[in-house]
Amino acid sequence: MIRLGVIGGTGCYELAQGGEKIEISTPYGKVTITEIIENENKIYFLPRHGLNHNVPPNKVNYRANIYAMSTLNVDEVIATQAVGGLNPALPAGSFAIAGNFLDFTRNRESTFFDGTGGIVRHVDVTDPYCMRIAEGLKITADKITGEDTELSAVYACMEGPRFESRAEISMLKSMGADVVGMTSVPEVVLAREAGLCYGAICIITNLAAGISPDRLTMDEVTEVMQLKSAQLQSIILNYSKNRIVGDCSCKACGYSEDLHKIAEIR
Where are the alpha helices (DSSP H) in the chain? Predict the structure, then answer.
């Protein structure tokens, strides 16, 4: 049996149906998680934007969410990300596995190690996403979609909640970004600080500004997510069958003991 944490938004809420809700108190606030038993495994589903999807990406309590996952002693965390496509090889409706990021967020609490208790740590995020999880997600996605899923997409994370300008998208493309979204950072960084193995599967819901011939709307994002939600949930529920077991650097790079020292101080 594995304990799998899932952090998701649009297209994933059906995972919580029939599960048991658990409220977890953290030093950063309370978090509601749904526990589901699937294929003899425990899945802990955390709705990133709240139970009613009413928290914008720039206001998500990322520290509380990741801390809650760490207290559950999950073996791994899988995040789902709705993104815009910059790479022509990734059309709307396709999936990609995040491999690295560009961070353009500005006003978010982005670290557990903010000097509380005099504890400051500098976490290594050379390879921020767990590639062991990434490979397992790719195998699963390939089987379910019948397509060759991109394994190492570069995710450009913007502050939001607005969409990007044409000039911003041009800049991100020139910097090597494949997809653009608003939620992967600081989530992935906090997971690394906590010593959690974290992987992210992206759903390309639209072509980004200036690439798409149409104006961007949330209706377009929601429509594609609804069309792909069954596949997305199937990937998550079947991931454990293709999970790759082995060593990775995630836990070694983290500072879980110091994280809990800070929690006691707070």
Answer: 62-71, 131-145, 166-174, 184-193, 218-238, 250-253, 256-265
* pTM attached to this predicted model: 0.94
In 3-state terms, what secondary structure has residue 180?
strand
d(CA 138, CA 149): 6
51-78 as b/e: b if 16+ CB within 10 A? eeeeeebbebbbbbbbbbbbebebbbbb
What pLDDT does residue 215 have?
67
User: Can you tell me the distance from the alpha carbon of 101 to that of 110, in angstroms, rounded to the nearest whole number?
Assistant: 14
Q: Closest by alpha carbon to 70, among 37, 103, 27, 13?
A: 27
Task: List domains and CATH numbers for the chain.
Answer: 3-253 (3.40.50.1580)
Gap between the Cα atoms of 241 and 158, Å rounded: 34
Does 266 or 128 have the greater pLDDT score? Answer: 128
